[in-house]
Amino acid sequence: MTHSALPRVLVVGSGIAGLSTAWALTRRGFAVEVFEQGQVPNAKASSYDEHRITRHAYGTFDGYARMMPDAFRVYEDLWADLGVRHFEPLPLVVLKREDVPWFDASRASMDELDVAHRDIPLGEVASRYPMLETEGLTGAYEAEGAGVLFPIRILTDLVVHLAGRGVRFHAGARVDAVDPETATVRVGAATHRGDVLVVAAGAWVDRLVPRLKGVAVPSRQAVAFVAPPPDLAEAWSRAPVFIDLGLASGTYTLPPRPGTRLKVGDHEFTRRGDPDGDRLATDEDVARLFAAAALSYRDFDRYGVLERKACFYTVTEDESFIAEAIGARGYVLSACSGHGFKLGALMGEGVARVIAGERTRDELPHWAAGRRA
Ligand SMILES: Cc1cc2nc3c(=O)[nH]c(=O)nc-3n(C[C@H](O)[C@H](O)[C@H](O)COP(=O)(O)OP(=O)(O)OC[C@H]3O[C@@H](n4cnc5c(N)ncnc54)[C@H](O)[C@@H]3O)c2cc1C
Fold first, then answer.
1. pLDDT tens-digit profile of 15-50?
2. 8-48+152-215+318-368 adopts what CATH topology?
3. Domain definitions of the chain by residue range
4. For residues 255 and 262, is the Cβ–Cβ distance under 8 A?
5. Which Pfam families does the UniProt entry name for this protein (predicted)?
6. Count of alpha carbons within 13 Å of 343, Cβ hemisphere only?
7. How far is the centre of ligand 1, averaged over its atoms, from the C-alpha of 47 (Å)?
């Protein structure tokens, strides 16, 4: 057992979920150890990337839309602790090419939350955003309460901050098994025991928590970092975040910001692949993405491809997150389905609250799934 006044918590995973849980626990005085199979942070984690979108516009997930003010607030607390703000507010422009509920549902929940948004007349789209393909556009709006989070900087600064607050990091420590009844983890021949265990193992979570096999399904996803043609570079330098709801799979796009490249991804889940496998995206990986990008962007074939990357996250059936008690002393947290970074810090805070006795274990799954209890 521990010599400190509060219990010792073992956290598996140094992505945004694990590190945020460690951060929220450390703020409450807990002793924390983090086990990470790769380097800390790990470039293979879902969380490790140049940028991530954050937004109040949340389509039909109005439960998550309602959590976004809290999600923004928790990140503000994090910036205060880190002494630096790894977030840039940017407008979000949502484009519609066929009728999908996401478009109007987002506007309704933003009205409820008092988040400003305004329609963009279709006749103005080409002059405001010369990179966009306007053919087939049937609607467009611009929303506030959005922007870009910078995950590599966030993870790196969190690690430095937490190490300074006494969190012990075990890098290159692949946890082979966990026992949530005794809060123990096994790494090779070594067994580590804490008082509480949190498994935040991203796309590998079902290997440690068998109940999640087939529930949180690893999904290989392609993204591309691209360089726009020179005549569009200036327009891209002042571009918003774009979500194009399709035809086909649609795209999401993060504009180049200082220290980041222009990145485009698509909305379709593959629900296949091995997160330990090769991360260079194949032609097959990017085929659908490039086809979708050619529908979103004019002259997409003139863009230079800088990197094709295969990434992983888990996907649940209804795209909700999992946070729940396992065994007598354990918790599992999977902020998944491709939308968990913006809510990652809040999810870590939520798990820490339960461990600290500020919220009951029973409330946790509903809350994390974005449902009212
Ligand atoms: C291409 C892409 C685009 C995305 N875009 C957005 C976006 O725009 N906005 C948004 O909000 N979200 C987005 N997401 C989702 C978001 O990034 C993820 O939901 C979030 O990062 C998940 O964090 P995590 O900590 O749960 O998992 P991870 O970041 O994967 O962390 C899990 C960690 O656990 C470690 N681990 C696993 N097993 C073990 C073990 N046995 N022993 C030790 N360590 C272990 C892993 O190495 C890893 O470091 C995107 C994700 C991807 C991949």
1. 999 999 999 999 999 999 999 999 999 999 999 999
2. FAD/NAD(P)-binding domain (3.50.50)
3. 8-48+152-215+318-368, 92-144+217-315
4. yes
5. DAO
6. 28
7. 4
49 Cα: distance to centroid of ligand 1 (angstroms): 10
Q: Which two tokens stand for residue 297?
A: 């962007």
In the block, which residue shows the tokens 């020179």? 230
Fold that domain 92-144+217-315 belongs to in CATH: D-Amino Acid Oxidase; Chain A, domain 2 (3.30.9)
Identify the pLDDT of residue 267: 84
pLDDT bracket for residue 372 (50, 70, 90) = low
pLDDT category at 5 given cuts 50, 70, 90 is low
CA dihedral 266, 272, 275, 280 (to 10 degrees): -50
What is the tens place of the pLDDT at every residue in 272-296? 999 999 988 999 999 999 999 999 9
Distance from Cα 248 to the centre of ligand 1, integer Å: 26
Q: Is the pLDDT of residue 352 over 90?
A: yes
Residue 13 Cα: closest atom of ligand 1: 34
Output the DSSP codes for 202-262: GGGHHHH-GGGTTTSEEEEEEEEEEE--HHHHHHHHT--EEEE--STT-EEEE---TT--E
Residues with CB under 6 A from ligand 1: 12-18, 35-38, 42, 44-47, 52-53, 174-175, 200-204, 208, 221, 223, 265, 311, 313, 334-336, 338-342, 344
Instruction: Name the pLDDT band for 1 (thresholds 50, 70, 90).
Output: very low
